[in-house]
Amino acid sequence: MTPSFLYSIIRVATPLILASLGAVITSNAGITNIGIEGVMLISALAGVFASAFGFGPWFGLLIAILTGVVCSLAIGYVSMTLKADSVLTCIAFNTMALGGTVYFMYAVVKDKGTTLALSSGKLPSIHIPFIQNIPLVGDVISNHNVISYAAFVMIFVVYVLLYKTPLGLRIRSAGKSPKALSSVGVSLIKTRYIALGISGILGGMAGAFMSMGYVTWFSKNMTAGRGFIALAADAMGNSTPLGATLSSLLFAIAEALSYSLQVTTIPPELVQMLPYLVTIIGLIVYSVKRKSKDSKAREVYAKKNV
User: CA-CA distance, 188 to 24, in Å (whole number)?
Assistant: First the structure.
């Protein structure tokens, strides 16, 4: 396990961590936000356009975040205010995002594949003083994109938000006991809108990293299912910031390994399916453990009431 491999794990994990934290917020509010994939995709393209035609990458990041918020709130409006089925709403949104980004990309740069024709710039990488000079450690931890460091800061921020603030209590109540939340005069819909907005911020950051940190352009379907992997990380992590982060790192290891294996004689199709295979296996293990835990809990409850 070389320093470059460990470095790539952090790089690959960045969008997964951000998106999974967004999923943690909405899951705690009682919302399964399948639309996080589309939010990332649209935000990635919006960030590139804003950077190329606006005031550079930082402006692109701001627009990507705002786009993520608007998209998430739009999903909430259709599913909560208009009472449409939330799963179908998110599926429709993801489909629209996939086709819509290609349409607008072609409309602007006359290319259905990438935005390489645009000079959109890249968000800066940070060299950490002192640490960058430490052998091995500096090669792994230093010189990452600014959003990568922001992602790890957001783990702490989301933890504090959920477990140490009144807003976090309301968000968790919206998921665990919505009737109790309404009984004390707090709007359930408003609380869930706030959760979706926060999720949109994180999804927008993840999308911006994909197109202005991971690479410096947008390409068709560049999220490649990372939003769905983030949802799996949220489920495996029991909708907790730390659990989702650890699960994201596990999936990032699989993805980084798939990149390393591309230089071997293993068929590339098998290599490319590795991250998704690990995701499926992880969900199976999680489901089996959860089912076993629920069965034991029912047995204990039955014995107490005999």
Answer: 17
State whether the Cα torsion 211-212-216-217 is positive or negative.
positive
- Map residue 125 onto helix, strand or coil: strand
What whole-number distance in Å separates Cα of residue 237 and Cα of residue 3?
27
Rounded CA-CA distance 181/260 in Å is 49
Residue 134, both tokens: 């430490």
Tokens of 242: 């730390």
CA 176/CA 129 separation, integer angstroms: 44
Q: Where are the alpha helices (DSSP H) in 113-225?
A: 137-141, 146-164, 166-176, 178-183, 188-209
Residue that has been written with the tokens 């980004």 in this structure: 101
Region of residue 186 (phi > 0: left; psi between -120 and 50: alpha; otherwise: beta): beta
Rg (CA), the chain: 20
Q: How far, in Å, CA of 112 to CA of 133, rounded?
A: 43
pTM for the predicted model, two decimal places: 0.90
Question: Average pLDDT by consecutive 10-residue portion of the chain (306 residues)?
Answer: 84 94 94 92 95 90 96 94 92 94 93 87 86 80 91 96 94 91 90 95 95 90 91 90 92 84 73 80 80 71 63
DSSP 140-170: HHSSEEHHHHHHHHHHHHHHHHHHHSHHHHH
Q: At 126, which helix (H) or strand (E)?
A: strand 125-126
Backbone φ, ψ for residue 123 (5° rounding) = -65, 145
Residue with tokens 């070389």: 2
CA distance 55 to 120: 10
For the packed helices 241-261 and 274-304, what is the interaxial angle rounded to 10 degrees?
150
Fold of 3-304: ABC transporter involved in vitamin B12 uptake, BtuC (1.10.3470)
| Domain range summary for the chain, segments of one domain joined by + | 3-304
Q: Residue 129 in 3-state DSSP?
A: coil
Residue type, 177: S
* Amino acid code (one letter) for 103: Y
